[in-house]
Write a structure and sequence with these properties.
This is Glutamyl-tRNA reductase. Its EC number is 1.2.1.70. Belongs to the glutamyl-tRNA reductase family. The chain contains 14 helices and eight strands. By secondary structure, the protein is α/β, with parallel strands linked by helices. Helix 10 links the parallel strand 6 and strand 7.
Length: 387
């Protein structure tokens, strides 16, 4: 898609963020081409009735709004579970794609690095990253602390079971086996995440070889019972993590020596506490984002005057070299070096105040007036043509 955008439009600094629940395109251009990009996205998906689908797209025509929105997305404020790092990590990957395709210029490099620094501040200064704020994350956090390098059996691949698997793929190197009544679903997820797959008919032998069993089976009565555990006597120590509602693991399994059970209620309680800590940290996160946005906007406004600064430097450098050529023909090499240092130092001191004034004018929104004055004083437009 990024290459298609590059082919169709005169744009630079393109960032394409695609996740399970959002597709966002950020770009730098002298014109607002949001409508054209929306049309291209829909056509690429085989949708020709473009007008009826425009309402599903959120558009930002002002650069400042788009920048602030990306900060919110990239820090996890707009994640399904607030503070979740999945989307921020996907933005890092998207930025790498932009860089690999030579579609990341100075603007995008500066913006993303400012965002990464803001994320670092969020992690260091707030509780916004603390704890697992979703049941699936909390379950993975729990099982990671139970034993080193466990064999994990995940039974049931509904929404929560699938989420646990995806989180396991990101956070553990343990051996994971998937079991689902519909084996084809397990095979698809197993192939994607690199996990082993077993038949539901072999569930008891899989329980015997596993250290931790994560269950999210949907049924009215418990599937894992005390009788089953007694029948599998001689097995090693087992942990059950029951994420089902109603419960799929009978509380009586803990009556069997060596079996421990964690229920969704205790896991959800941990997740709720972590989520509340994150929500309490949101005002501080917003403050950090606000400071970072101001810093980035100051830099981007300074970029407007950068060409004028370069032309002014070029004009003064031309004068310096012309005058040196006229008056230094009879100087020795040592004298010439001294004159070079002196005139270069003089030029830098002459430039210092106009550059500072230009940058200050940027922050006040008055840069255009000063740019016009400098252009007139030093005939910088002519200077540009001569180069």
């Amino acid at each position: 898609m990024m290459l298609r955008l590059k082919d169709f439009f005169d744009i630079s600094d393109v960032l394409a963020v695609s996740t399970c629940n959002r597709t966002e395109i950020y770009y730098s251009s002298s014109n607002d081409i949001n409508e054209d990009i929306i049309k291209l996205l829909l056509i690429e998906k085989g949708i020709e009735d473009v007008d009826n689908f425009k309402a599903y797209f959120e558009q930002f025509s002002e650069g400042d709004e788009a920048v602030k929105h990306l900060f919110h997305v990239a820090t996890g404020l707009q994640s399904q579970v607030v503070g979740d790092m999945q989307i921020p990590n996907q933005i890092k990957h998207a930025y790498q794609w932009s860089a690999d395709l030579n579609m990341a210029g100075p603007f995008l490099h500066r913006l993303l690095h400012t965002i990464f620094f803001a994320n670092k501040r969020v992690a260091q200064e707030t509780f916004f990253r603390d704890g697992a704020a979703s049941v699936s994350y909390a379950a993975v956090e729990l099982l990671e602390g139970l034993m080193p390098n466990p064999k994990i059996l995940v039974v049931g691949l509904g929404e929560i079971g699938t989420d646990v698997c995806r989180n396991l793929a990101q956070n553990t190197s343990a051996e994971v086996t998937l079991v689902n009544r519909t084996r084809s679903k397990a095979e698809v997820l197993g192939a994607e995440l690199g996990f082993r797959v077993a038949d539901f008919a072999d569930i008891e032998s899989e329980i015997s070889r596993a250290d931790i069993i994560v269950s999210s089976i949907q049924r009215e009565e418990p599937f894992f019972t005390k009788e089953m555990m007694v029948r599998l006597r001689g097995m090693s120590f087992k942990y059950f993590i029951d994420l089902s509602v109603p419960r799929s693991v009978s509380p009586e399994v803990e009556e069997v020596p060596g079996v421990m059970l964690y229920t969704i209620d205790s896991i959800r309680s941990k997740a709720d506490e972590a989520l509340q800590r994150r929500l309490d940290a949101v005002p501080h996160v917003e403050e950090i984002i606000g400071e970072a946005v101001v810093e980035f906007n100051d830099w981007s406004r300074e970029m407007i005057v950068s060409p004028t600064i370069q032309k002014l430097k070029g004009a003064l450098e031309t004068i310096r070299k012309e005058e040196l050529t006229r008056f230094t023909k009879s100087l020795t090499e040592s004298e010439m070096e001294k004159v070079e240092r002196i005139t270069t130092s003089m030029m830098q001191k002459i430039l210092k105040l106009p550059v500072l004034q230009l940058k200050a004018a940027c922050k006040r929104g008055e840069a255009e007036t000063l740019i016009d004055v400098l252009n007139d004083l030093f005939n910088l437009e002519k200077e540009k043509e001569s180069h």
